[in-house]
Amino acid sequence: MNCIVADREHVKQMGRCHQIGDTLWLAMSGSGVGMRFIGRYLEISIRGGYVAERGEPDGNYARVAVYVNGTRIRDEMIDCPRKQLTVIDQTCPGEFEIQIIKLSESAMSVIGIEPMTIGDGDVLLPLSPKAHLVEFIGDSITCGYGVDDEDSSHEFSTATEDVTRAYALHTARLLDVDYTLFSASGFGIISGYTDDPRRRLAEQLIPDYYHSVGFSRDRFPGGIDPTKTQWDFGKLRPDAVVINLGTNDDSFCQDTLEKQQEYMAAYERFLCDVRQRNPQAELFCVLGIMGQRLCPWMERACENYIEHTGDRRVHTLRLPEQDGSIGYAANYHPLERFHLAAAEALAPYIKKTMNW
Question: Does 54 have pLDDT greater than 90?
Fold first, then answer.
C-alpha cells in the first residue's frame, strides 16, 4: 500500500483549499477534490476540525459526499476526529472518476483530507480543468440551506444542507464550468439576518471575510482560524463572479430609505473590492429568490459603480422569486425546484454575456 497526499500533483483542488502539512483542509461549501483513479484499492481518510474532536451539541458537523463516476456512494457526517472511507476495493483494476465534495458550509465546521491509501501499482491523477471557472458569492441560498428538508417549520441543520442541489452548482453544471464558492448562511452586505430591524447584525458581513479562506467558528489544527487565514487570489482566477447578496440585508433594511441607500453604497464598495481581487472577471449581480425588495437598490449600486469607475463589465439579473405554491424547504428556504429555476435563468444569461 502507498499513501498519496491530496496535492495538486495528484488531485484537482476545487474551491478554496488550504494545505497544512500533508492534509488538505476544506471550509467553504462545494470545496473538494477531483481525481482519476486507476487501480484496485482506494481509501480516503477524512479528518474533522475542533468541532468534530470536541463534539457539537446541535449536531452541526460537516457533511461530505464521495462520488464515483458521478454517482454518490457515500454521504457522511464527520462527527468524530477521523473517518476512514473505503471507496474502491476490487480484485481487478479499473479506471474511475472520484470526487469528494463538502456539502455543508464553513461557518459550522471544516474537514481535512489526509493522505489517501492506494494499492501497489495504483495511480491517482487530477481531473482535467474545465474551460472556464465561475465564483459564486452568497448566503444561505448559495449554500443550499435546508434543501434536503421540505418542511418549512424546521430550522438550520448541516445534515439537510446540500450545496450540490442549490442554484450555484446547478448553474455550473448547465454551463459545464468549474466553480468556487464563498458563502455563509445569514450573511449580508451591511447586516446579517435579524428578526428585529432595529438591531443590525454587523458581525455577519461577507465583505469583511471575502479575503479569507472562509468564515468559520471551527479551527484547523493548532487553532488556526480559517477566518484569519488570507486567501491567495492567484490560486483561482474566475472568468465570471456571481454575487447574490441582499436577502439578509432586507431583514434589516425593510422599507427604510436610509438603510436601503446604505446597502446600495456598501454594495458598490464591495464591487470595487471584488474587482480589485478579480481584475479579469465579468461580474454578475443577482438577487430575488427569497424576495425582491432590495433588487432596485442592488441594480442602482451597479449603475453607480459603472458611472464612477467606467468599468462596464458588470451585469444585473433578477432571479425568479419563490412563491410558495409548491412549498418551501427548511425555514422557508427554496426547494431544489426553485434553485433549478434560478439556474435556468442565470446560466443562459452568463453564457450569452460571456459568449461561451
Answer: no
First-residue to last-residue Cα distance in the chain: 44
Instruction: Examine the pLDDT at 234 and tell me if it is beyond 90.
Output: yes
Of residues 21, 242, 227, the one with CA closest to residue 112: 21
**Together in a domain, 79 and 223:** no
Q: How big is the CA angle at 259 (ends 253 and 264), to the nearest 5 degrees? A: 105
CA angle 247, 248, 250 (to 5 degrees): 70
| 262-291: pLDDT as tens digits | 999 999 999 999 999 999 999 999 999 999
Segment 16-19 long-range contacts (CB within 8 Å, at least 24 positions apart): 16/180, 16/182, 16/213, 16/214, 16/231, 16/236, 18/213, 18/220, 18/226, 18/229
Q: Which amino acid appears at position 164 of this protein?
A: T
Report the domain count for the chain. Answer: 2
Select from 70, 97, 126 the last residue of a domain: 126
- How far is Cα 192 from Cα 168, in angstroms, rounded to an integer? 20
Final residue of a domain: which of 84, 110, 126? Answer: 126
C-alpha cell, 266: 456598501
Longest dimension (CA), the chain: 68
Q: Determine the Cα–Cα distance for residues 288 and 301; give it in Å rounded to an integer.
A: 15
Would you say the pTM of this structure is higher than 0.70?
yes
